[in-house]
Amino acid sequence: MAGGVQFRFVLSYIALIAGLLLLLNTYPMIVSQDLVIDGKEAALTGQALGISQALSGGEALERESVGLIMEQQELAGLSRIAVTDEMGTLLYDTAYRGAEGINVLTFEHLPRVLSGYDAFYSAYADGNFRSQVAVPVVHAEGETVTVIGAVYLYENDLVQGAFIEGFQRDLQNFSIGAFIVALFLALIFFRTLTRRLMEMLSAIRIVGRGDYGYKLAVRGKDELAELGRAFNRLSDRLQETEEMRRRFVSDASHELKTPLASIRLLSDSIVQSEDMEVETVREFAEDIGQEAERLTRTTERLLQLARLDATPEPALVPVDVAQVVRRAGYMLEPLARELDVEMVFDLAEDGLILAVEDDVYQIVFNLAENGLKYNVEGGTLLIRLEKTADQVRLTVEDTGIGIPEEDIPHIFDRFYRVDKARSRARGGSGLGLSIVRDTVLQHGGQIEASSRLDVGTRFVVVFSGVG
To answer: Residue-wise over 398-425: b if at least 16 C-beta within 10 A, else e?
Structure first.
C-alpha cells in the first residue's frame, strides 16, 4: 500500500541505499581521476622542463637547431611535441611535421607561458585522459633572464583511461548487486517488522471489540517485544477494570433493586387492602420511608464515588487534622451514647496536611462511624493522631466484632460487605470504605487495615505533613 508503514520504510531505506551507492560510484572515481591527473602533471611537466633546458643555450631559437636538438630527445608515448619562438610561431611540431600553413601554436594558455609561467591542463572523457603542458624556454645571461620560446607537450592516455573505465564498470556492477541484495534484505526485514506491527494492530482491534483476555505472543527482547508486553499488561488492566465495572453494575443493581422491591411490595399491599388498619398503613409507610432513605444514601454515595473518579486534582490548603477529628467526634457523640461506646481521643497538635477539609472530615467521619456501628456495648473507639517530621498518622481503632482475615483484602471494594445481613441492619451500603480509600489516594495518602475477630479493627491513614 502506497500509504502503508512498510512502503514508507522501504522507500526511505531505498533512498538511503541509493544515496550511499551514488556516493560510492562518484567519490572513488573523482579521487582516482585526480590521482592520475596529479601524476601526469608531474611527469609531463618534468619532461617539458627537460626539453626547455636543452633548448635554452642560445640567445634565440632557430628552426634548424631546434630540430637537431629535438631529434636527440627520447620522448616516447606523447601524441604531440611542439616548440615555438618568443612570438608563438611554431619551430618544431610532431603533429604537423612537413605540413604547410600551420605557423602558430593554438594553445589557449600560450600567452601566459611566454610571460614566464608553466601551464597544465588535463581532462578525462570517454575512457581517455587528454593532457597538455607548456613551459617557457628561457635564456639567462648574467642576471638577465629572457623568454625565447615555449615547449608544448600533448598526450592521449587510453591505458589509464581504460583502467579508470574498468574501475567504474566494476563499481557499477558491485553497486547493482549490492542494491539488489539490500533491497531483498530490506523487504524481508520490513515485512517481518510490519507483520509484528500488524499483529499488534489486530490485537488492539480484538481488545477494542471487548475481548480483554486476548494476549499477544511476545518474542525476543527488542523494543517491539517490550511494546507487546506493555500491551498485554494493559489488556490485563482492562480486563480487571471490566470485571470491576460489571461487578459494580451488578452490585449497584442489586442494592437498588432490594429497596425498590420492598417499596413496591409495601405500596401494593396498601393499595390492594381495602380494609387495612390505619396503624398498619402507618407502619408500611414508615417502612417505605426507611427504604427510600436507604435508596437516597446509596445514590448519594454512588454520586460521591463518581465525583471522586471524575474530579481533577482538588485545590489543596493546609488542614489541621486534629480540629477535623474533634468536629467529627462532636457530630458522632449522640450515636456513641446510643450504642454505649466510649470515644477516646489522643491527638497531637499541629498535624497539618495539604488537603480539602471536607474530604478529611469525610475520611474521619466514615472510619469513626464504622468503628461505632460495628463495636460492642461498652466498647471503646480510639482515635489517635501522631505527627512525625514529614508525616501525619491517623489511627482509628475499635474493640468491636472484627473482620475475618480472608475478607480484609476486599473491604475497600465497592459494595463489598463482610456480613451482608448485619451490614444492612446497621445501615451499611458497602460504599463507605471505598469512598475513604479513593479520597485518601486522591490526596496522596495511604490507608491500611488490620483486624481480629471479636477483638477489633484498626485503620491507619498516613498523609504527608506540612512544615
So the answer is: bbbbbbeeeeeeebbbbbbbbeeeebbe
Element (H, E) at 204: helix 158-208
In a domain, 298, yes or no: yes
User: Can you give the residue range of the structural domain that contains 369?
Assistant: 314-464
Domain boundary among 296, 311, 326: 311
Q: pLDDT tens digit string along 137-164?
A: 998 877 788 898 999 999 988 888 888 8
Do 117 and 31 reside in the same domain of the chain? Answer: yes
Residue 419 reports pLDDT greater than 60: no
Predicted model pTM: 0.45
Residue 188 lies in a domain: no
Per-residue confidence at 282, pLDDT binned at 50, 70, 90? Answer: confident
270 shares its domain with 319: no
Q: Please check whether residues 154 and 238 belong to one and the same domain.
A: no
Asked if 401 contacts 453 with a C-beta cutoff of 8 angstroms, the reply is yes
* Euclidean distance between CA atoms 368 and 398, whole angstroms: 9
Based on the fold, state whether residues 363 and 452 are members of the same structural domain.
Answer: yes
10 and 66 co-located in one domain: yes
CA 286/CA 185 separation, integer angstroms: 82
Torsion angle defined by CA atoms of residues 80, 81, 87 and 91, in that order, rounded to the nearest 10 degrees = -110
Residue 342 located in a structural domain: yes
| Domain presence at residue 179 | no
Please say whether the beta carbons of 456 and 397 come within 8 A: yes
Q: Distance between CA 371 and CA 150 in Å, rounded?
A: 119
Number of residues that make up the chain: 467
Separation CA 462–CA 435 (nearest Å): 16
CATH number at residue 392: 3.30.565.10
Chain centroid to Cα 162, Å, comes to 53
Verify that 389 and 281 share a domain, yes or no. Answer: no
- Specify the residue for cell string 551507492: 21
DSSP 225-291: HHHHHHHHHHHHHHHHHHHHHHHHHHHHHHHHHHHHHHHHHHHHHHHH-TT--HHHHHHHHHHHHHH
Per-residue buried b or exposed e for 180-201, using 16+ beta carbons within 10 Å of the residue's own CB: eebeeebeeebeeebebbeeee
CATH number for the domain that contains residue 49 = 3.30.450.20
CA 265, chain centre distance (Å): 61
| DSSP alpha helix (H) spans, 343-464 | 357-373, 420-425, 432-442
Best CA proximity match to 335, nearest among 294, 296, 365: 365
SS3 153: strand
